[in-house]
Every structure is written in structure tokens, then in C-alpha cells.
């Protein structure tokens, strides 16, 4: 997949930005978005394997791998929800907050990649966006939302700690503990090697 894209204002002949091969990213900022959401989106934009490799194999290379460009366009309407047949945009971050947030994502993209390959439109402008898709392929990318309830956060942290402790023991130690427990329950139980299957043997 590849695309060529340009952003131009609705009135006038000035072309704001254009790219050759690469990604055209329509970026909507939610009122609940944080820096973690921004970091996730930046990482995914640069690393999603959306392009073919030199041998023509699809879904193997990222924009970074192929040295392609990225055009970002602020798009608050992506946060639209419908109330009946009327669009509602209360989920979108207010413009006075969204603008610096959007520009911080652009700066993050530039510092994480080649700044000359990151292009953008004009925040809040009424633009005509011309996109020529080779595909066409559209990926809906949403940052994962974590729970806001402190009790739920604490529960998740404890679950993660238990998982880490289990992993740190290693499978061999865990298996030895299970074997020892079976032996303590029935010292005469057979392993089944001679055809005698113990009632304590796990399926």
C-alpha cells in the first residue's frame, strides 16, 4: 500500500503540503487523551507494517523501513458520535488544548524519524485533502484506553505482579513443585512409564 497526498485550502491556490509515497494520517484528538496515548499513536504510525518489501511481499515494511513520508492532518470529526441523526463532537478535545497536543505529536514524529519526511496541514483550517490511494487501504488506529477507576488500576497492578512472579520462577521449577506435591500425596504412584497410570496423574 502507498499513497500520494496533498492538503490545499478550500479557497486560493496555495498548496500547504504534499507527499509522494507514504501515509496520510487523519488525526483526531479525544478530550481524554494523554501523553501515553500520543506516544502510542506515534509509535504505531512509524512502525505499522503496511507496505510491501523489495520482493513485493505485502504487509512487511513500515514507513521507516521504506524511508517514506507521513502527512498528518488534524481531524476533530473523527471523535464524532451520533445523537439520532445529528453528529456530536463533545468527545473531541477543545481546539485551544488540541492544537498544542497535535503539534506535540508532530514534534514527536519528527524527533523519532526524519523531520523532513513529516508533513502537516494547517490546524483548524478548512482544507481540501486530495488523497490518491494505492490499494486503497484504510487502518483505524485507536490508542488503548486504560481504566480510570483507581480500584481497577490497583487490581490490574496486582495481577501483573502475580504474573511476573510466576514467570520469574520458570517452568522447570514449577514442574518440580507439582511433581513433589504429587509424590507427597501418593508416594507409591507410578509415572506411567511401565503402563501403570496413577489416579493422581494429570490429564
TrEMBL record:
Xref: InterPro entries: Daa-tRNA_deacyls_DTD, DTD-like_sf
Record GO terms (molecular function): D-tyrosyl-tRNA(Tyr) deacylase activity; tRNA binding
Keyword Disulfide bond: no
Catalytic reaction equation(s): a D-aminoacyl-tRNA + H2O = a tRNA + a D-alpha-amino acid + H(+); glycyl-tRNA(Ala) + H2O = tRNA(Ala) + glycine + H(+)
Segments of this protein annotated with the region Disordered: 137-203
Biased composition regions of type Basic and acidic residues, renumbered to the chain: 152-163, 174-187
EC number(s) from the headed UniProt entry: 3.1.1.96
GO cellular component: cytoplasm
Keywords recorded for this protein, A-Z: Cytoplasm, Hydrolase, RNA-binding, tRNA-binding
Compartment(s) where it occurs, according to its Swiss-Prot or TrEMBL record: Cytoplasm
Pfam family, one: Tyr_Deacylase
Matches recorded under Gene3D superfamilies: D-tyrosyl-tRNA(Tyr) deacylase (3.50.80.10)
Family as reported in the entry's similarity comment: Belongs to the DTD family.
PANTHER family membership: D-AMINOACYL-TRNA DEACYLASE 1, D-TYROSYL-TRNA TYR DEACYLASE
Protein name, entry field: D-aminoacyl-tRNA deacylase
Taxonomic source organism: Gasterosteus aculeatus aculeatus (three-spined stickleback)
Amino acid at each position: 500500500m502507498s499513497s500520494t497526498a496533498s492538503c490545499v485550502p478550500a479557497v486560493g491556490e496555495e498548496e500547504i503540503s504534499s507527499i509522494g509515497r507514504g501515509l496520510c494520517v487523519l488525526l483526531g484528538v479525544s478530550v481524554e487523551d494523554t501523553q501515553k496515548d500520543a506516544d502510542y499513536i506515534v509509535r504505531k504510525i512509524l512502525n505499522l507494517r503496511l507496505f510491501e518489501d523489495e520482493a513485493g511481499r505485502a504487509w512487511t515494511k513500515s514507513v521507516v523501513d521504506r524511508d517514506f513520508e507521513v502527512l498528518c492532518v488534524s481531524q476533530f470529526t473523527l471523535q464524532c458520535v451520533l445523537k439520532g441523526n445529528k453528529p456530536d463532537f463533545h468527545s473531541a478535545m477543545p481546539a485551544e488544548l488540541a492544537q498544542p497536543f497535535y503539534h506535540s505529536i508532530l514534534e514527536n514524529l519528527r524527533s523519532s524519524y526524519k523531520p523532513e519526511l513529516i508533513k502537516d496541514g494547517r490546524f483548524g483550517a478548512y482544507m481540501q485533502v486530495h488523497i490518491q490511494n494505492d490499494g486503497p487501504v484504510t487502518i483505524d488506529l485507536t490508542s488503548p484506553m486504560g481504566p480510570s477507576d483507581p480500584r481497577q488500576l490497583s487490581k490490574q497492578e496486582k495481577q501483573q505482579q502475580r504474573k511476573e512472579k510466576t514467570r520469574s520462577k520458570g517452568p522447570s521449577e514449577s514442574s518440580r513443585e507439582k511433581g513433589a506435591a504429587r509424590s507427597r500425596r501418593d508416594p507409591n504412584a507410578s509415572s506411567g512409564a511401565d503402563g501403570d497410570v496413577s489416579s493422581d496423574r494429570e490429564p
